[in-house]
Specification:
There is one protein chain. The chain has 153 residues and is α/β, with parallel strands linked by helices. It has one domain: Ribonuclease H-like superfamily/Ribonuclease H (Nucleotidyltransferase, domain 5, 2-Layer Sandwich), CATH 3.30.420. It is 48% helix and 26% strand. A five-stranded mixed β-sheet has the order 3-2-1-4-5. Strand 1 and strand 2 form a beta hairpin. The termini are far apart.
Length: 153
């Protein structure tokens, strides 16, 4: 049984974003320009599922409750309707789930901070996003981080 921990990250909505999945200690990651956090969260789950061999069994942990609820309904074949948001990824999700035994579980805020695998996915997603950020995005991100540390927000 595979244990998969996923996360997505964007520094600003509609800016560079990254995703990551940790599958039994192996990290997958990637990035997109001009994206949003939900897309990165979903892409992490989809990419992990696409990476698994047919016949695989996995529990996939994500901190996005909508992905857990909708994804489990799709896997159980109880709902074939595709959400309008990120429809291309939901189609990939449906295809990737075929021939696999997948269960999605919600990783709650209080639990995820102590979860080493989730923290590794979170860090890898942030690094993937940072690699493709423009100079202006990096400057804005650094300024925002400084404001948060000072309590200016």
């Amino acid at each position: 049984m595979n244990r998969v921990f996923t996360d997505g990250s964007v520094f600003h909505n509609r800016s560079a974003g990254g995703w990551a999945a940790v599958i039994n200690g192996t990290t997958l990651s990637g990035s997109e320009h001009t994206t949003n956090n939900f897309r990165m969260e979903l892409l992490a789950v989809v990419s992990a599922m696409e990476h698994m061999e047919p016949g695989s069994q996995a529990v996939i942990y994500t901190d996005d409750l909508f992905i857990v609820k909708r994804g489990n309904r799709i896997v159980a074949a109880k709902d074939s309707r595709m959400p309008k948001s990120e429809q291309d990824l939901w189609e990939r999700f449906t295809k990737a789930a075929q021939g696999k035994l997948i269960g999605l579980k919600h990783l709650e805020a209080g639990t995820k901070k102590d979860c080493q695998e989730h923290n590794a996915a979170h860090q890898a997603a942030r690094e993937a996003a940072f690699k493709i950020m423009s100079f202006e995005e990096r400057v804005a991100s650094t300024r925002e981080a400084g404001a948060v540390e000072r309590g200016d927000t």
